[in-house]
Amino acid sequence: MRIRSTREQRIRGVRSVLRWILYYVVIFLCFLIMTSGTWMKPILLVPAAIAIAVNSGQYSSALTGAVCGFLIDIACGKLTGYNAVLLAFFSIIVSLLYEYYLRNKFVNYIVITAVISYIQCWLDYKFYYEMWEYENVEMIFSQISMKVWAITIIASVFVYLVIELINRFFLPKDHITIEEAVNTAIRSERK
Amino acid sequence: MRDFVKSTKFKVLLGFLAFLIGIMVYSVTKGGYSLSGVSLFNTVSKPFRTVSNSISRNMEGTLDRLAHSDEYYEENQRLKEEIGELNRRLTEYEALKTEVEELRELVSIKQEHEDFEYTQACSVIGYVTNDPFMAFTIDKGKEEGITPNCPVVTAEGLVGITVEVSDHMTTVRTILSPDLSVAAVSSKNNKDMGIVEGDIPSAEQGITRLIHVDKNNNLKVGDLIVTSGISGLFPKDYSIGKVKSVSRDSNGLSDCAVIEPCSDISRLSSVYVITDFTGKREEGNEN
């Protein structure tokens, strides 16, 4: 008894390709927003990498995290590879957490985004400012790092919605329900 | 989870992370030049970034006008009064005289700095995201003869120095940054020397500082501070900014002056890079 036709598999493949193309379009848009204008902006690529890792395997999460990290390095003028290492690592962790322990809920996502973006902002502050012992360096943490962290969390809601929208249309279902299996079986018997 | 740690996938991912760390270490050794991949990405993304930046600036301008409409209205009224006052005072002759003086000044700068080799005007593509010291990227790079540690200027004065050069893009560190130290001197007497170096509170207000000035100095508010050219990184006698105030440094051993840069660093749209000048040092770093 075949419960999934070859055509369905093909559609599934095309959907998957489209989904990843859209993910990378979103990533590029996040990068453009981050590099435009003169105002303080959220590090949109952190929630984007996390939102993608939620529904992806470890390899694809690591790769997407690394790409997002490289783009943050370019946008924020940081050492090439620094954020790539961080985000690749965190994306793998997020992917594993969702595979073994967590359910795909918005609350889980927002908590993880808050924690990871805080760590990213804190490490950025430590390595790029505090370590060099500038005068009044604590001002950077309170007036820039914390503000960036806060607006990143707020912006992550929109990133989540966009990624969820893509997932709704293009994320293939991993399992079919009993009802779907029965219906498919009935259809194939009729033929 | 335990199975995952023992799996091949885990080892592959560890290898991938090690590879990323390798890239990071390799980029440290590039001495101010971007990795070729980054350079390529910068080249490809430049038109998109230019367009999105212009859209963003327009949006920011519109939002700014909406958010501060009351302030702008009051400012507008005040300016109208001031314009009326000025109109009464100014004659056509005075306006022409000012214009002629400005033109003479421009010509004299060109004559004074015949040895400078400038790039073409470089457009500011955008400011580095969330950088407190207003570092920015420009649309010219290695292909236009720019190298790391080239002075970046406007017609008004020194802006900063190039730090990371791609093929068609360059990141500029500004004089608001504590990572850039410029040997400077008062143009009035060429005696009151110091180091122009930013700090965090000053950068927030778009100003910088002249530090390590001798206690027996003759600096006064409004004095023009220019580059001393000692290091060979910056050309001699290029305007940096004007003295806003002078006070004793926190260590009590020297004086410190607050400097208002000649150029408004937060609102730059185009700059010039000086690629060569007499007395330029080929190697080394002043900062």
Report on this model:
The complex is a heterodimer of chains A (about 190) and B (about 290). Chain A is mainly alpha-helical. Chain A has helices at about 5-35, 45-55, 60-75, 80-100, 105-130, 140-170, 180-190. Chain A is elongated, with a radius of gyration of 20 Å. Chain B has about 290 residues and is an alpha+beta fold. Helices cover about 35% and strands about 25% of the residues of chain B. Chain B contains 6 helices and 13 strands. In chain B, the strands form 2 sheets. Chain B has a 6-stranded antiparallel barrel. In chain B, strands 7-8-9-12-11-10 form a 6-stranded antiparallel barrel. In chain B, strand 5 and strand 6 (about 170-175) form a beta hairpin. Chain B starts with a helix and ends in an 11-residue tail after the last strand. The interface between A and B is large, with 46 and 49 residues.
Instruction: Figure out the total of helices of chain B.
Output: 6
Protein chain pair with the most extensive contact, residues per chain: A-B, 46 and 49 residues
**Form type of chain A:** elongated
Q: How much helical structure, as a percent, in the residues of chain A?
A: over 70%
Rg of chain B, nearest Å:
23 Å
Q: Count of DSSP helices of chain A?
A: 7
Return residue spans of chain A where pLDDT drops below 50 for at least 5 consecutive residues.
none
Instruction: Enumerate the spans of chain B where pLDDT stays under 50 for 5 or more consecutive residues.
Output: none
Number of domains of chain A: 1
Quote the beta fraction of chain B.
25-35%
Major β-sheet annotation of chain A: none
**What helical percentage do the residues of chain B reach?**
25-40%
